[in-house]
Design brief:
The chain has a single domain, classed as Nucleotidyltransferase, domain 5 (2-Layer Sandwich), CATH 3.30.420. It contains four helices and five strands. The chain has helices spanning 35-45, 65-81, 93-103, 108-130; strands spanning 2-4, 9-15, 22-29, 51-55, 85-89. It starts with a strand and ends with a helix.
């Protein structure tokens, strides 16, 4: 499972059972749902074995407030699920996701709704490709 951390929305992606491809699964609106509980439920229902949380770092490698939030979320997910949780560099995932959605002629309103789950899928796919 891949997680794209955000303060308002969290993108969730899943891989196939053979760990070859990643696909967007959903977006969690942090204001409307307990994100950690929702992620734990998805992990349990989908029989997830490992969770990858995107770590937003700057080009220079600096970790700001968003990175601290992602690290905190990763720790909470690990506690709630008992699963191994890893952090993975997520530089350019949102930009890559936006480019893909633009190429697919996805309307602006729809892009806003799915960009986080697509970014999670991009980040998870990069992780899978490195394995």
């Amino acid at each position: 499972m891949g997680i794209d951390y955000g303060t308002r929305r969290i993108g969730v992606a899943l891989s196939d059972p053979l760990l070859i491809t990643a696909r967007g699964h959903m977006v969690i609106d942090v204001r409307e749902a307990d994100a950690v509980e929702t992620i734990a439920t998805i992990a349990r229902d989908q029989k997830v074995e490992r969770i990858i949380v995107g770590l937003p770092v700057s080009l220079s490698g600096y970790e700001g407030a968003s990175a601290a939030g992602a690290r905190e979320l990763a720790a909470e997910i690990a506690t709630a699920t008992g699963l191994p949780v890893e952090l993975s560099d997520e530089r350019f995932t949102t930009r890559t996701a936006e480019s893909a959605l633009l190429e697919g002629n996805v309307r602006r309103r729809r892009r806003k709704q799915v960009i986080d789950q697509v970014a999670a899928a991009v980040m998870l796919q990069h992780y899978l490709d490195k394995q």
